[in-house]
């Protein structure tokens, strides 16, 4: 075998080994992140967990009214009472302070 053939074989083995190593590392990293995502303690430590839960509650509340044709959920031009329902950080964060 000539020197060029050996160099090409070495380069090919290096590239293939690097790709296999990169694939294995990415698979390990993805698996690790998936295990973190299923940890209930980590979910409770999320700084915006209260806000996310509040959005879920609002969604459930609105979904119950979705098929109800007897309610009216629209406003007059001068009615700004809906602004009082806007979520504020004090409503969903512990202690009422921003992180």
What number is the mean pLDDT? 79
Structural class: mainly alpha
**Low-confidence stretches at least 5 residues in length (pLDDT < 50)?**
none
Helicity level? 55-70%
β-strand percent reads: under 5%
Distance between the termini: 66 Å
Please give the count of helices. 4
- The whole-angstrom Rg is 28 Å
Shape: elongated
Instruction: Encode the helix/strand succession as letters.
Output: HHHH
Largest sheet: none
Please give the structural blueprint:
Elements: H1 3-37, H2 40-44, H3 49-66, H4 89-92
Gist of the model:
With 99 residues, the chain is mainly α. The protein is built from four helices and no strands. The radius of gyration is 28 Å and the shape is elongated.
Question: What does this protein look like?
Answer:
It is built from four helices and no strands. It has 99 residues and is an all-alpha fold. The mean pLDDT is 79.
Question: Which keywords apply here?
Answer:
mainly alpha; 63% helix
């Amino acid at each position: 075998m000539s020197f060029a053939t050996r160099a090409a074989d070495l380069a090919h083995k290096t590239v293939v080994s690097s790709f296999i190593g990169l694939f294995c590392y990415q698979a390990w990293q993805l698996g690790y992140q998936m295990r973190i995502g299923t940890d209930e303690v980590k979910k409770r430590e999320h700084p915006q967990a209260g806000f996310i839960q509040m959005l879920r509650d609002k969604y459930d509340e609105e979904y119950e009214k979705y098929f109800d044709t007897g309610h009216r959920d629209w406003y007059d031009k001068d009615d700004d009472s809906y602004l009082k329902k806007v979520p504020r950080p004090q409503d969903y964060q512990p202690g009422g302070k921003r992180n």
